[in-house]
């Protein structure tokens, strides 16, 4: 029988944001936890294809799925060495680092989702370009940008994959230019607001006001911040990242470069999806990798024990 003491692999826990949600993904989630979340947020989680057309449903459901998985792993005495969340994923990352209490976490993300919905009802969104460097992508945004037709370079998902946020008309101009400049892929994303850009400043201000009322704790592991890609250990920088997440680009490529400098032995990508494990595989073959959307918690526990030995 395994010891009850906390066992720590040099582990990197990865938390994706929106995009991988699908009907039925909550079927194995703890029903008591789901009931608690619905009570705290006053939102009935539908877990249906129709429900996942709504940003509040998407964000709360993904967060619930990730928190359930975190709690299952921690009951088995596993703890992260580093945590990294992409966009929405920063909130599960902060919970894994024991920065925020569960009830406050869900109330915060419910507010975030509602503010995002209300900010830009129509005409704004995001696009993605693959095959151009970040510098090349930045020049395209600067070329198109006007005060009446704004567009910003936003997330850095990998070395040659960047997103743009702003007015749809401006994003379409950038995508056309990107294709003319040799991009292998340039398309609009199914995101109904200009996340991770200065256009979300008002929403960020309201989030920061809410966060200022919460009792938060120093992270118990290394937290990789979206806004600058750096590894941080102090509460002030984690709080800044959570509160201003919607205004700053997610510098995921930088986050992963820095994470690898800490020489983790295993990565664990939480549900839903496996996109970040695929990106990590392109960067290193020195890591054991687990994706919880593809294997059970029991299987993950077995592998962690095997690799710990």
UniProtKB/TrEMBL annotation:
<protein>
    <recommendedName>
        <fullName>[acyl-carrier-protein] S-malonyltransferase</fullName>
        <ecNumber>2.3.1.39</ecNumber>
    </recommendedName>
</protein>
<dbReference type="InterPro" id="IPR014043">
    <property type="entry name" value="Acyl_transferase_dom"/>
</dbReference>
<dbReference type="GO" id="GO:0004314">
    <property type="term" value="F:[acyl-carrier-protein] S-malonyltransferase activity"/>
</dbReference>
<keyword id="KW-0012">Acyltransferase</keyword>
<dbReference type="GO" id="GO:0006633">
    <property type="term" value="P:fatty acid biosynthetic process"/>
</dbReference>
<dbReference type="InterPro" id="IPR016035">
    <property type="entry name" value="Acyl_Trfase/lysoPLipase"/>
</dbReference>
<dbReference type="Pfam" id="PF00698">
    <property type="entry name" value="Acyl_transf_1"/>
</dbReference>
<dbReference type="InterPro" id="IPR001227">
    <property type="entry name" value="Ac_transferase_dom_sf"/>
</dbReference>
<dbReference type="InterPro" id="IPR050858">
    <property type="entry name" value="Mal-CoA-ACP_Trans/PKS_FabD"/>
</dbReference>
<dbReference type="InterPro" id="IPR016036">
    <property type="entry name" value="Malonyl_transacylase_ACP-bd"/>
</dbReference>
<keyword id="KW-0808">Transferase</keyword>
<feature type="domain" description="Malonyl-CoA:ACP transacylase (MAT)">
    <location>
        <begin position="14"/>
        <end position="296"/>
    </location>
</feature>
<dbReference type="GO" id="GO:0005829">
    <property type="term" value="C:cytosol"/>
</dbReference>
């Amino acid at each position: 029988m395994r010891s009850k003491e906390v066992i720590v692999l040099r582990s990197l826990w990865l938390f994706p944001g929106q995009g991988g949600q699908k009907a039925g993904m909550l079927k194995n989630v703890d029903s008591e936890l789901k009931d608690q979340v619905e009570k705290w947020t006053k939102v009935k989680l539908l877990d249906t294809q129709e429900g996942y057309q709504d940003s509040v449903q998407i964000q709360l459901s993904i967060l619930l799925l990730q928190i359930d998985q975190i709690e299952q792993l921690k009951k088995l005495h596993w703890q992260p060495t580093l945590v990294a969340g992409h966009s929405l994923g920063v909130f599960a990352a902060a919970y894994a680092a024991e920065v925020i209490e569960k009830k406050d976490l869900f109330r915060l993300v419910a507010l975030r989702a509602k503010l995002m919905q209300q900010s830009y009802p129509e005409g704004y969104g995001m696009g993605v370009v693959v095959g151009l460097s970040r510098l090349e992508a930045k020049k395209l945004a600067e070329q198109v940008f006007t005060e009446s037709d704004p567009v910003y370079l936003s997330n850095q998902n990998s070395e040659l994959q960047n997103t743009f946020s702003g007015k749809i008309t401006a994003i379409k101009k950038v995508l056309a230019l990107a294709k003319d400049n040799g991009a292998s892929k340039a398309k609009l994303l199914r995101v109904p607001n200009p996340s991770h850009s200065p256009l979300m400043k008002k929403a960020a201000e309201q989030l920061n006001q809410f966060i200022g009322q919460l009792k938060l704790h120093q992270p118990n592991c290394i937290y990789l911040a979206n806004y600058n890609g750096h590894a941080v250990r102090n509460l002030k920088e984690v709080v800044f990242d959570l509160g201003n997440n919607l205004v700053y680009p997610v510098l995921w490529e930088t986050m992963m470069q820095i994470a690898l400098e800490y020489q983790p032995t295993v990565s664990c990508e939480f549900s839903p999806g496996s996109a970040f494990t695929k990106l990590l595989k392109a960067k290193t073959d020195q890591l054991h990798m687990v994706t919880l959307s593809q294997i059970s918690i029991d299987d993950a526990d077995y592998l962690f024990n095997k690799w710990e030995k």
